[in-house]
Amino acid sequence: MATNNAGNTYIVPTTANEVTKPSQPAFLARGGAQDANVTGNGTLYTLGQGNVMVEIFDQNTDFDIGGGGGSGQSTLTAPVTGRYQLDVILAIKNNENSTREEFSLVTSNFTYAEYGLPNQATSGNNDANINISILAEMDAADTAYVTYMCDGEGADTSDIGNTPQLWFSGYLAV
């Protein structure tokens, strides 16, 4: 028996008693192409402002992949109040002389930030892979997006990696 309202199905049990919720907010997006020279001299980069993200899925159409060309950002807008599991994986390239790095998952209620020391977690080729995973409290219409800043390069020479080094996902947990 499915639970529905006005022709929309909200909870669907299977014959084996598993339950799916087709309208439950959930999304997964990856980088579409590398964003080159976006930070390095203190410029704040916001995910989706350059190359547009590619949606793998967006179960309730709550995720905006970004405007691209510097005119938008990849943003989750919470449709209901609750706790959202948010995860970001980001690869940074060409940050060999950085003196400060800041990677943030920004929500309307709080900024979850990871501050890096120069070349922290590098793989030996001046690249860094960083991630944040958080269960965030969000109210209806609150937003969540990702920023990165690198300083000390002398110019904006750091690149944001593309798939598989760039992922942003989230879902309504409770």
CATH hierarchy class name: Mainly Beta
Mean pLDDT: 80
CATH topology: Jelly Rolls
Number of helices: 0
Order of helices and strands: EEEEEEEEEEEEEEEE
Low-pLDDT segments, ≥5 res: 119-124
User: What is the domain tally?
Assistant: 1
Outline: elongated
CATH architectural type:
Sandwich
Could you give the topology of this structure?
Blueprint lengths: L2 E3 L2 E6 L5 E2 L5 E5 L4 E5 L4 E3 L7 E5 L4 E2 L10 E3 L4 E12 L6 E8 L3 E6 L11 E11 L4 E9 L6 E3 L5 E7 L2
Antiparallel strand pairs: 1-2, 2-3, 4-7, 4-16, 5-15, 6-14, 8-9, 9-14, 10-13, 10-15, 10-16, 11-12, 11-14
Please explain how this structure is put together.
With about 170 residues, the protein is mostly beta strands. The protein has one domain (about 25-170): Jelly Rolls, CATH 2.60.120.40. The protein is about 0% helix and about 50% strand. The protein has no helices and 16 strands. The strands form three sheets. Strands 4, 5, 7, 10, 13, 15 and 16 form a seven-stranded antiparallel beta sheet that branches. Strands 6, 8, 9, 11, 12 and 14 form a six-stranded antiparallel beta sheet that branches. The two termini are about 25 Å apart. The model is unreliable at about 120-125 (pLDDT under 50).
